[in-house]
Amino acid sequence: xxxxxxxxxxxxxxxxxxxxxxxxxxxxxxxxxxxxxxxxxxxxxxxxxxxxxxxxxxxxxxxxxxxxxxxxxxxxxxxxxxxxxxxxxxxxxxxxxxxxxxxxxxxxxxxxxxxxxxxxxxxxxxxxxxxxxxxxxxxxxxxxxxxxxxxxxxxxxxxxxxxxxxxxxxxxxxxxxxxxxxxxxxxxxxxxxxxxxxxxxxxxxxxxxxxxxxxx
Length: 216
Fold this sequence. Notes:
This protein is of the alpha+beta class. The protein is built from 3 helices and 15 strands. It is 18% helix and 44% strand.
């Protein structure tokens, strides 16, 4: 996926999870943060960040904050809407007969329902932006929704579906994602139970640029 109207800036602070202050061309801008996670190790004062100006009429902020360079030099896309978009692009190249986003199953909306011949697959997508010593971790904040989705995927297996949990790794050089049990032990438990039940875990390393994100 490709962004338009990119601007570079310096991160200043984040008053709440929805907005941040960024210096752009010598001016302080209030920008929308496209990630409600903590991002504490990323959004540090002085960090190099990239913004996009969608130009949507009626917006309260001109810019969305979409990428940041971590202190160790890794460029990370933090747009929480990007994983589904790049997976959709990638799935279109995988010769499925049917790709249906936002599929209702049980009490959840699963990101993708897929058909290939008689095979039916449910795929849930998670974006990984947390890196520790060369390994990706998810989540960076407790996610009851993520636990619920794992339970739904496990149940789907008993209904004859294939079930896939796909991690979009929104940074270069990382190929594996592990459950962040320190932040959310329940997710780790649900993750292991889902794997044992037969849910396939898929890691999707990405190529990251300030103005784009693509599954490799």
